[in-house]
């Protein structure tokens, strides 16, 4: 009898999720003896009554590596450990449905689960593993903020998209002699901003790890204009903040989504510059989810495909409780408990910080 693997994609989507699914599928077919199923919208599919799970066959999986999003869909509102339920009086409470989830996974005959997701999803993987579930983690996020892996798929694509947008903003900034601020995603890490600033040749790059001084940013802009009819392109990470300030965002309105939704710091910076002596016209652009959509770049397709294959091999070898990682150009495995220990901030002594500084990019500090 075939063994059964259940796949879930959780949290925000990112380019490359489908390539992982196809990687798992093709590796399983080459090996033989396995059936693959997907739980729709992370673990909500299994928790639904009736369950919403689909068998992944060749027809569903062929060619999906070039497609953005996830064919089994995702959600950031389905933590089985803190599942939101509405009471009779309309109030929302959370209940722990993890035991029910594991029971249903077992009742449906699944031998193992592969959970593809970021920090939040892997914390869920860990809790389920601790309760006895045979689970393997695959890291994903455009933010590249998981410390156990040098790269997450989706990140390279997000940087490509952001750099393309940045290049377009350079030509319009130049024509109008303007200051143009471009806000990128990345949550509390400045990786997307830092890579985009170096790739695009920004004058200023503002990241969460280095608080910026508005007056220093203004000085830097004015210096460029003193040399003639200048223009300035700034990349700012959504989680950046001024000295002693706080991030720009608000609590999610979605029931069950615990994350603060960052966004809008570019508009705040525009205002800060306008009232702080910046002589030039300032415009701001918030890229938002465009960085997460569409087809993955070749690097992410390769990384995601090989992570899928590796995850399948880890199931065969029963390496449960581990997550796939990409370290020093090799695929390895790390205990999920270790993978979720630490957030991957940009360290001040990272080589890209000194590269940027020596390229004349200001961090506003
Ligand atoms: O973690 C990926 C990410 O795109 C972050 O960069 C961003 O802050 C967040 O998700 C946006 O979340 P949502 O899709 O819920 O708005």
Commentary on this structure:
By secondary structure, this protein is an alpha/beta fold. The protein has two domains: 3-153 and 296-339, Rossmann fold; 155-293, Phosphofructokinase domain (Rossmann fold, 3-Layer(aba) Sandwich), CATH 3.40.50. Helix content is 36%, strand content 20%. The chain has twelve helices and 15 strands. It has helices spanning 17-31, 44-47, 58-61, 98-107, 119-130, 155-176, 191-200, 214-226, 265-274, 298-316, 336-339, 351-358; strands at residues 3-9, 34-39, 53-55, 83-86, 92-95, 112-117, 135-139, 179-184, 204-206, 232-237, 249-251, 260-262, 282-286, 322-327, 330-335. Strands 3-2-1-6-7 form a five-stranded mixed beta sheet, sandwiched between helices. The termini are far apart. The model has no long low-confidence stretch (mean pLDDT 96).
Distinct ligands, ions and cofactors found in the model: 6-O-phosphono-beta-D-fructofuranose
Total DSSP E strands: 15
How many H/I helical runs?
Answer: 12
CATH class of the largest domain: Alpha Beta
SSE succession:
EHEHEHEEHEHEHEHEHEEEHEHEEHH
The proportion of strand residues reads 15-25%
- Estimate nothing, just give the exact number of structural domains: 2
Question: What class do helices, strands and sheet pairing give?
Answer: alpha/beta
Unreliable spans are none
| Largest β-sheet summary | 5 strands, mixed
């Amino acid at each position: 009898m075939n063994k059964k693997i259940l796949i879930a994609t959780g949290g925000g989507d990112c380019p490359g999720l489908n390539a992982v699914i196809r990687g798992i599928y093709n590796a399983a077919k080459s090996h033989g003896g396995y059936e693959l199923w997907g739980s729709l919208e992370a673990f909500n599919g299994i928790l639904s009554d009736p369950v919403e799970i689909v068998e992944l066959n060749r027809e569903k999986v062929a060619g999906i590596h070039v497609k953005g999003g996830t064919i089994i869909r995702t959600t950031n509102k389905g933590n089985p450990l803190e599942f939101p339920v509405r009471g009779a009086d309309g109030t929302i409470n959370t209940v722990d449905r993890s035991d029910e989830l594991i029971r249903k996974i077992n009742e449906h005959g699944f031998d193992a689960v592969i959970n593809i997701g970021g920090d939040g999803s892997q914390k869920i993987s860990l809790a389920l593993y601790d309760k006895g579930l045979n689970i393997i983690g695959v890291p994903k996020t455009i933010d590249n903020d998981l410390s156990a892996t040098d790269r997450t798929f989706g990140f390279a694509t997000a940087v490509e998209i952001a750099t393309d947008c940045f290049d377009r903003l350079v030509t319009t900034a130049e024509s109008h002699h303007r200051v143009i601020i471009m806000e990128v995603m990345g949550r509390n890490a400045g990786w997307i901003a830092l890579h985009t600033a170096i790739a695009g040749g920004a004058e200023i790059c503002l990241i969460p790890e280095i608080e910026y001084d508005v007056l220093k940013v203004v000085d830097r802009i004015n210096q460029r204009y003193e040399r003639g009819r200048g223009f300035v392109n700034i990349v700012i990470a959504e989680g950046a903040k001024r000295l002693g300030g706080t991030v720009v965002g608000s609590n999610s309105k979605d029931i069950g989504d615990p994350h603060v939704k960052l966004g809008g710091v570019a508009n705040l910076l525009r205002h800060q510059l306008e009232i702080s002596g910046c002589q030039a016209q300032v415009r701001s652009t918030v890229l938002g989810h465009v960085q997460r959509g569409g087809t993955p770049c070749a690097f992410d397709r390769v990384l995601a495909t090989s992570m899928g294959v590796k995850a399948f091999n880890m199931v065969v070898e029963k390496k449960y409780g581990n997550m796939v990682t990409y370290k020093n150009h090799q695929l390895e495995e790390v205990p999920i408990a270790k993978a979720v220990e630490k957030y991957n901030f940009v360290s001040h002594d990272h080589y890209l910080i000194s590269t940027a500084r020596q390229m004349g990019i200001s961090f506003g500090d």
